[in-house]
Amino acid sequence: MIIAIDGPAAAGKGTLSRRIAETYGFHHLDTGLTYRATAKALLDAGQPLDNESVAEETARTVELAGLDRDILSAHEIGEAASKIAVMPSVRRALVEAQRAFSTREPGTVLDGRDIGTVVCPQAPVKLYVTASPEVRARRRFDEIIGKGGSADFDAIFEDVKRRDERDMGRADSPLKPAADAHLLDTSEMSIEAAFQAAKILIDAALKEA
Ligand code: C5P
Q1: Is the CB of 85 under 6 A from ligand 1?
Q2: End-to-end Cα, the chain, rounded Å
């Protein structure tokens, strides 16, 4: 059983994916971390972000077991990740590792931008989780303030829109819903309500499996 969850940054797909994985006892892979880990390794090594063959080589060294969101969450790493994510050979390397992960038993939840369209198009449950850019920027802002940090809402809002443009506009595997994905707009829906909607779809797919 593979659950594919796609959507733009800060739409709530991480929280939803973790909740689904816990509920069903499935393995979870946040595929954004694979792009982030590649970007961080390049930054740490002082490598440029525009050399595709170096980036591909680095992508092949990423260990899925060692991915840690706390270490990889920095804003600069996210920006760098979305730059190297436009490179087809980087994507091929990471997609290979993601596909290998997706076959783990008893089931997997993968979240990212291209899971339903490219990585696991055969997944029986595909969700496209989205929310308006304003709502996503507000959530990110509240999260930073909630952790005692300081943030500038307008800067975050611009960032969200820029990241969307890059992810939706790239030629290789742009962010878009798969034709058979179920859309969950969390702008006016709580994560709990999104989870309940997802659960109905997953339970139905499990009955058919
Ligand atoms: O989701 P997260 O913000 O961690 O992802 C970082 C970047 O990695 C995204 O902006 C996107 O460019 C890239 N990414 C991708 N395909 C995925 C997951 C993430 O291109 N499946």
Answers
A1: yes
A2: 8
- Which of 53, 16, 56, 67 is CA-nearest to residue 184? 16
Domains and CATH numbers, the chain: 1-26+107-203 (3.40.50.300), 31-105 (no CATH)
CB under 8 Å to 130, separation ≥6 — which residues?
7, 8, 11, 183, 184, 185, 186, 187
pTM assigned to the model:
0.95
Question: How remote is the C-alpha of 139 from its chain's centroid?
Answer: 16
Ligand 1: residue whose CA is nearest its atom 20: 85
Any ligand 1 atom below 6 A from CB of 32: yes
Atom 7 of ligand 1: nearest residue by CA position: 82
Closest by CA to 179, choosing from 101, 135, 116, 130, is: 116
Write the pLDDT tens digit of every residue in 3-29.
999 999 999 999 999 999 999 999 999
The residue contributing the CA closest to ligand 1 atom 16 is 113
Distance 62 CA to ligand 1 centre (A): 15
Ligand 1 neighbour 7 (Cβ under 6 A) = no
